[in-house]
Amino acid sequence: MLNVGNVTLKTNVLLAPMAGVTDYPFRTIIRKFGDFLVFSEMIASQAMIRHVIRTKKMVDRLDDMTAIQIAGSDPDVMAEAAKISVDCGARLLDINMGCPVKKIVNNYAGSALMKDERLAGRIMESVARAVDVPVSLKTRLGWDNDHRNAVSMAKIAENSGIKMITIHGRTRFQMFNGKAAWDQVKAVKDSVLVPVIVNGDINSPDDANKAICESGCDGVMIGRGSVGSPWLLNSVDHILNSAALVDFDKKALLNEHIQLMLEFYDQENVYKLCRKVLLSYCKGFGGASALRDKINRIDNLEDTMDVLQEISSGI
Ligand SMILES: Cc1cc2nc3c(=O)[nH]c(=O)nc-3n(C[C@H](O)[C@H](O)[C@H](O)COP(=O)(O)O)c2cc1C
User: Fold this and answer.
1) Which of 27, 85, 197, 312 satisfies CB 3.0 to 4.6 Å to 38 for a cystine?
2) Mind listing the pLDDT tens digit for each residue in 240-257?
3) CATH number of the domain enclosing 285
4) Which of 19, 52, 42 is nearest to 96 (CA)?
C-alpha cells in the first residue's frame, strides 16, 4: 500500500504513461493483473481545453485507478486541463516534465521545464491548487549531464503541493539511450518526504528488486517491459509484495486485447492500431519471424481477423 495524498494505492507497482500505448484497451488488459495505478497517454493541455475529439477519446472510460497525465507550459491552461481531467474521472493527475520529444520540448513543455524551475514551480502550484485529487510529477534526472537538477525539481514539487514524484533515471539528452541510473534516483528519494517512484529499464522482477534497492524508492513504474507482456506488473508485484500470481493464457489475452480495440476505436483505421498490438505479442509464439512478416502486411480489418485466427489456432 502506498499513500499518495488522499488516495491509497493498493500496490507500489505502477504502469507508466506511454503515448500511443496506454489507451483504454491496454489499461484494461493491465488491470486484469492487479490493482495497479495506470496512467493515460500524455494529454496536451491545449488540446484538452479545446475539447479536441481525439484527445477526449484518450480520457474516455477511466476506471477508479487511472491517472491522467497532462503536458504543457502555461500554468493557467494546465490548471484548466487539470479540472477537465478530474471531471473525466481522473483519480490522480500527473504532470509531464520528462518527455524528451522535440515537438514537446520546443514548446517549453515536457523535459524542457527542467531548464526553467521557476515556471515548473508555477505550473505545479497552479495545477495542485486547481484540483482536489492528488497531483504527481514525472520527470528525469536532469536536462543533460551538466544539469542534473532532479533533487532541486523534487523540492520545488513538494513545496508546490505535489504528492508523488516519479523519476526516469536518465537525462533528457540521453533520450532512451544507455541504462537508467537507479542509484542516482536515491538522492531524490532522500530529499523529499512524498513518495518517490523509480522508473526506467525495469523489465523483470529482478530488475524491480535492484531498482528498489539501489534507489531506496517507494515503488516502481514500468513502461516498455509491459508492452506485449502485460503480466509483467503482476510478476513484479508478486516478488515485491507477495501478490498472488494471476493465471493467464497469452493467446486468449491477445484475443481480448484486440476485441477491446475493435469495440473502442472507429472501424475505419483500427486495423493499423491492431497491427501494433499483434506485433507486440509476437515474441515467444512459434514462427514469430514469419508471423511478424504477415502482421506487417495487414492492410484491413479482414486481414487482422485472419491473423488473429491463425494465432489462436496455434499456427
Ligand atoms: C512509446 C512510448 C511512449 C511514451 N509516452 C510517454 C508519455 O506520454 N508520458 C511520459 O511521461 N512518458 C512517456 N514515455 C516514457 C515512459 O513513461 C517511461 O518513462 C520510459 O519508457 C522509461 O521506462 P521503461 O524503461 O519502463 O519503458 C513513453 C515511452 C515510450 C516507449
Assistant:
1) 27
2) 999 999 999 999 999 999
3) 1.10.1200
4) 42
